[in-house]
Amino acid sequence: MDAVQAGLCDTFQRDFLCCRRIGSLPWKDLEHQLSIRPSFVLRILEQTINHPVSQKYPPSSQYRRLFLSELIKKHERTGAEPLDDIYTAFAEVLNSGDNTLCYKSYCLPTGDPVTLAENVAIISEGTTGLVTWEAALFLAEWAIENNGLFNNRTILELGSGIGLSGLVICRSCSPRRYTFSDSHQKVLQQLKENVLLNGFMLSEEPSDTRKTPTTIVSVTELDWESVTEQELVALDADLVIASDVC
Question: pTM for this one?
Answer without folding.
Answer: 0.86
